[in-house]
Structure formats: structure tokens, C-alpha cells
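worker-03 picked up job from queue 'complexes'. Input manifest follows; two sequence lines, order preserved.
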Amino acid sequence: MNILQKGQIQEAAVDRPAARLSLAYVWVAYIAFGVAALAGMLQGMVRGGIMELPSWMNYYQILTAHGVLMALIFTTFFIIGFLYSGVAKTTGGTLHGSALGWGWSGWILMVIGTLMAGVMIILNEASVLYTFYAPLKASPVFYIGTALVVVGSWLAGFGIFSRYRKWRRLNKGQNSPLFLYMSVTTYILWIVATIPVAIEVLFQLIPWSLGWTPTINIMLSRTLFWFFGHPLVYFWLLPAYIAWYVCVPRVIGGHVFSDSLSRLAFICLLLFSIPVGFHHQLMEPGISEGWKMIHVILTLIVVVPSLMTAFSMFAIFETTGRKKGGVGLFGWFKKLPWTDVRFFAPFMGMLFFIPGGAGGIINASNQLNAVVHNTIWVTGHFHITVGAAVALTFFGVSFWLVPVLTGRTLTPTANRMGMVQTVFWSVGMFIMSAAMHTMGLEGGPRRTDYTTYMDHPLALGWMDYQRVMAFGGGLLFVAAVLLILILLYLTFMAPKGHTEYPIAETEEAQPVPRILERWTVWVGVLVVLIVLAYGYPIMEQIQHQAPGSPPFRTW
Amino acid sequence: METQPNTQRDVKKAPQTKPHQENLKGTFAAVIIVGLIILVSWFGIFGLFLDRA
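worker-03 finished. Artifact:
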């Protein structure tokens, strides 16, 4: 038997087959990250008016490359690699045959899909940005590639579910390890969220791009996209939360604050991150105000599990800091391991998430959305959420995960370089996103090439912000290169040795309500919420659709 | 409600469950600060909306 019984977690390591699979996902993620970082830096320079692209390349092409590779490919591959490693670690240090089979099948399909989509972007046949909104039309190969990425990610999810089922069979009547529980929650969210976008791609975009259908229902395609697009944000966030709830406490020498609270926060995030997509469509016609209001209310409920997470993190830091001798209201803060990159990088991510969360509430509020909608404020917002909170956490995880998977050690020099990398990324992101937020409030649009709008005074007022954005982008590129170099070192050159996979536990046995692990209940509640929030509006969009649109190629 | 011990620990070795006695004043203050940041940001942009409306 290769599945852990209770109390054995600390002794287990991640074995070679599981490590190879996780590493394969993590490295594809970082190859995509490197290309995306280059595209992002070029984009910043062009938008800042500092350079011009050669004639064979256009701004929207590199914008698409940056968005698709960073937001869709880097994140998804890294998340799957991280979850597989943690699931293996907490269930005996290994993965059984079918979990490995699902994992590799998913990886192969996702790599093929990524290559298909990537080649189309390079050939300038898919400059439709990462949201691929119709009526902009890409080559069918791009859509088929993205569909393969999604289907591949489902296969990988079946591997995690298979491991979970096996653990439950062998540990009847017990609650699963926290990491495993959170991985399953994350994957339920991902599979439910990707069904509508798969429907959009398979039944709307692919037939339309092949010319089989002359027009497309724009409203429906955008609704299906945002049905997926908002939980996509939580698919990025939940693995970062797993690192915050389960790994960071161990790194700082502390404990999980509350097992039940952690699980409840994940259930709330699962329930309230999906039936909320209309808050991305507040300025669109075709959806009545009442339905938008329902989605806004459900969106704002996400504040509850978010603040539960903030509370848990501060509580973990305070209890650990006080045990190390911290006194006074905030004296415990000084006792945290500030020179350990495994803590420092995710902590910086948490810090960015405070204004990120505040910005999210602003975006989701109807009147306030009117101020920021389609401005570069929104770009600034998702750069401090996914680009900082999530990315910095993933970097912090990578600094210990890669050595764990390669059987090497995070040396003091690599740790110091990681600290420098974190500072560069944080400063670059702060400068760039602060300029984006401010410029957005002054009306600067997102998703536009460099232009002075025929020297209009309002547009000329944005130019300085754009140059600041380019400077921040330059720092981010330096940090990205540094990160790749550190990860290459940790993969191939660092000294061989043991690196701990940090999994924290609660300080003392805590009762956990059994209902938190009854998935039929939570998936049932989720389906009811989705039907209530989306059922009627989608039916209306199909029954009373506006005239469809033919495809457009604007580049 | 039916409850279960945490599976990540060897329950036999674990001490009996007792209420947390930790000092969490700093946590309370920090969460209040986060809440204030959210409120100030929200009302700031709402003010901008009213100003432009």
C-alpha cells in the first residue's frame, strides 16, 4: 500500500515519478513565463513611447502573447505541478499509476494545445488578446489549441480526484489532509468554471472561425467567457491560498491557525466565485440591471472568505511571532523570518493583495465600475492581484519546490538572489501598477497601442504615466530573468541534498465538521446558485438574441 | 454537529482540545486596518464618481 495513514505525513517525501511529473508542469510554466515576460517588457516600452516594434510585429500580437502565456499558460501549468506535488506529499509521497497516467496525459495535451495557440500568435493569426472576445476572429487552430489546453487540464484534474478517492477509500471516515482537501476544492472550481468557456469555444468560436456559421451571438459568447473569467481569477488565487494556509506557517515555524476555518474559507470561495461574472459586464447592454445586481451582491460576499483569510494569516504570524518573543501590539511582526525568501516572497504577495482586494470591490460596484471600466486601472488591478499576489507566492513556492523535486538544496546564495529577485519584482510591480491605477482614474484606456490622439491635451497628460509604466516593466523583466536563472541553478546545479516540503499542521487536534467534506452538498449548492444567477439571463440571450456578428480581423 | 479530529495529526498523541488562549490583539488591529483601507479606497472612488456624475 502506498497511501499514507494518519500521522505519517512528515516522514513522506515526493518520489521520483511524482517529482518528474510535477517538474515537467513547473518547467513548461516557467518557459511560458519567460516568453511572456519578454513580450510584456516590449509592450511596456512601446506603450511608453520608448521604442517601436519592427514592421513584422504588432503591439496587439505581443499583448496577446503576454496575456495568453502569462495569465493562462504559466498559471495553469504551475498550479497543476504544485498541486500534484502537494497531493503526492500529503498522501504518502507518491502517486499511484492512474493518477500519474492522468497527469501525463493532461501534460501532453496541454503542451500540444499551447504550441498550437503559440504558433498562431507568432504567425500573427490570433492577435485577439487573452480574452479572445468575438467578433475579433483568430485562426481556428488558436481556438482548437486553447480547447486542448482546457481538456488537458481536466485530465490532470481527474488524476487529483483519483488520488483523493484512493485516499478516502483507505482512510474511511476521516477528513482528508488540508492540502489534498484544498486541491480538490480548487479543481472542482476549475472544472465547473471551464465548462462554459469550452461550450463557447466548441460551439460558437470554432464553427464561426471555420466559416461554418456566418455570424456569432456576441452577448452569449461574452457571458460564457465571464462565466469562466472570474472563477479563473480564483483558480489562480486558491493555490496561492493553499501556500499561505498550509506551507507558509511551516516555513515560519508556526501552525495552521484553524483547520475548519481554512476549509470553510475554501468552500465559500468555491460557492461565491462562479455565479458572479456579470460584474465584468456591468457596462454592457443586453443584461438587465436586476441580474447585474444579483451578481454584484454574490461578488461582494467573497469579501467574507477573503477577510477570513486575512485574519488567519495575521493570526498565524502573531501566534508564531509571540512564541518567538514578540511583545506589544505589533512586536511579533519583527520576529518573522524576513531573510528567508520562502516567507518573504509570499508575504510581499499578501501585501499586494490588500490594495488588490480593495480594487476588486471597487471594480465590482456598479457606480464605481463606471469610473474605471475599460481604463488601464483594470490592468493595474490584475497586475497587483495575479501579477503580484499570485505570482510572488508562486515564486516563493518555486524556491523550495524545485529543489524538493530535483533532490537539491536552496543554498544561502540562491536564497539571497531570491530576495533580490523579490525586491525587483515588487518594486517594479508597485511602480508600474501605481502608474496604471492613476492613469486609469484620469481616463487612460487599456488595450491600446501608443498614440497621442492627435496631441489631445488629455492624452498628452497620460504620457508621463506611460513612461513610468515602461520603467516598472523594465524592472519586472530584470526580475523575471533573475528568476529563470535561479530556477535553472536549482534544477541543474545546486548541491544535492534534502529540502523540506513545508506542510503545516494545527497546533493541537481540532474538531472539523464532517459536512465540510460532503461534496455532494457543496456542488449541489453551487449548481443551484449558478442556475439562479445564470439560468434565466442565458435563456434570454439565446431566445432574444440581437443580430449576430460576422468575424472581424482588425490587425 | 458531528465532528472529526484533524487528520494531519496523530490523534492519540494529541492533547485534549481546549479553547485558544492566544493573544490576538495585533491580528484584530491588523484586520481592522485592512478593512479601513478597503473603506477609504471605496469611498475615494465613489467620491470621484459623484464628482464626475
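worker-03 released lock.
Confidence is low (pLDDT under 50) at residues 6-12 of chain A.
The two ends of chain A are 58 Å apart (CA to CA).
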